[in-house]
């Protein structure tokens, strides 16, 4: 049984000169350059997707180390000297005091999610010419795009604690690590937004169709 890749290529929106506005989801016919509804710029694919994603991702990887090694908060209790806490030490402290649920949520949102997003983006960028339909890559991209909205929970927790505890026998101030962590989240979100998973399908369809001849019978 043979596969006809040309049929799949002809059924794409790009083959029919259709452009999708990424701002309002309006479908327009090429060669339009502006969306007729929101006047946003129209492109067949996100411009310079690979190079921009690599730039944002490399910045996020560099900032990932100070985000986890530098303290994110400086806590002062009455007359005691300030105590600096990193993300992992904060998680360990919450776990030690029995707040297992909060510790797990912060670990997943502040440590696992950024690391997982970076790993998935590296995997996607290294698979630019897939030999098989990139269904797995598409699912992974959709997943990191969905979970990215929860990555800033650690920043919100620090801001909330600082507002609630300020002046009540203690004081919590943000430390340099929290700014590095916020930058990691922002740059991973930018990398996710600039990456265009449709390019994987384009590269897959451009590959020569392999139609092995059926063995001779008789």
UniProtKB/TrEMBL annotation:
It comes from the Bacteria. The keyword Membrane applies. It comes from Cardiobacterium valvarum F0432. It is found in: Cell inner membrane. GO terms for cellular component: plasma membrane. InterPro entries: PqiA-like, PqiA-PqiB_transport. Keywords: Cell inner membrane, Cell membrane, Membrane, Transmembrane, Transmembrane helix. Its main location: membrane. The chain crosses the membrane at residues 54-72, 100-125, 146-165, 177-197. This is Paraquat-inducible protein A. The keyword Metal-binding does not apply.
């Amino acid at each position: 049984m043979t596969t006809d890749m040309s049929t799949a290529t002809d059924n794409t929106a790009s083959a029919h000169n259709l452009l999708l506005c990424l701002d309002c989801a309006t479908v327009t016919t090429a060669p339009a350059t502006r969306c007729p509804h929101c006047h946003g710029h129209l492109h067949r694919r996100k411009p310079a997707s690979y190079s921009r994603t690599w730039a944002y991702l490399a910045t996020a990887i560099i900032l990932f180390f100070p985000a986890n090694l530098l303290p994110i908060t400086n806590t002062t209790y009455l007359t005691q000297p300030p105590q600096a806490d990193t993300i992992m030490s904060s998680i360990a402290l919450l776990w030690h005091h029995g707040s297992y649920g909060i510790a797990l949520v912060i670990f997943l949102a502040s440590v696992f999610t950024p690391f997982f997003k970076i790993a998935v983006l590296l995997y996607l960028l290294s698979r630019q010419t897939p030999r098989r339909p990139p269904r797995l890559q598409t699912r992974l991209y959709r997943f990191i795009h969905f979970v990215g909205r929860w990555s800033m929970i650690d920043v919100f927790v620090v801001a909330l604690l600082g507002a609630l505890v300020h002046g009540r026998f203690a004081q919590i101030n943000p430390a340099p690590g929290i700014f590095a962590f916020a930058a990691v989240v922002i740059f991973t979100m930018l990398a996710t937004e600039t990456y265009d998973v449709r390019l994987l399908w384009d590269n897959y369809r451009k590959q020569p169709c392999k139609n092995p001849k059926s063995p001779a019978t008789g």
